[in-house]
Amino acid sequence: MMPLGKINIKSQSSRANESPTNANYRGAGLSEMAYAIENNLEHRCNGELSLHVLDIIDSTMRASQTGIPQEIKTTCKKPKPFTLEEIKKIMN
User: What is the residue extent of each domain of the chain?
Assistant: First the structure.
């Protein structure tokens, strides 16, 4: 189980998923991408994942316009979850 980490919300927010007892890791993905680029590593939001997301968006829009189910043409590997060690390394 991932610990809460540093609390960065000081009072109750109007957003349902934010409270002073929850940590906010919204910057983790961007930080991981920058770290990976600096260290010549493949980041989680790579071209394969990006292409797959765009294929899903395009297919969904086409299906809504035509009323015809569309086939998703791409696949990608599911990015692995962050470990506590990775969070500590990239979020300093």
Answer: 28-90
